[in-house]
Amino acid sequence: MQIFKVEGMTCAHCERAITGAVQAVDAAAQVQVDLTAGEVRVHTTHPVDQVLEAIINEGYKTEAV
Q1: Residues whose CB falls within 8 Å of the CB of residue 16, separated by 6 or more in sequence, listed in order
Q2: CA 42 → CA 15, 33, 54, distances in Å?
Q3: Which end of the chain is more exposed for a tag (fewer CB within 10 A), N or C?
Q4: What is this structure's pTM?
Q5: For the segment 18-60, what is each residue's pLDDT rounded down to a tens digit?
């Protein structure tokens, strides 16, 4: 499991945008977004860098934990 701290997530739209971005990299990825904690947990076999880039490209400041 990969865990990311993501700034600026505030609503269901943010959750859908991040989930869609990650699943564009890996359609089978399981994505859990915790808006309150500002965390995204991803179950994927793809490299952390690819997932991180997908979230950043959606316009969110993020880092792997």
Answers
A1: none
A2: 13, 9, 12
A3: N
A4: 0.93
A5: 999 999 999 999 999 999 999 999 999 999 999 999 999 999 9
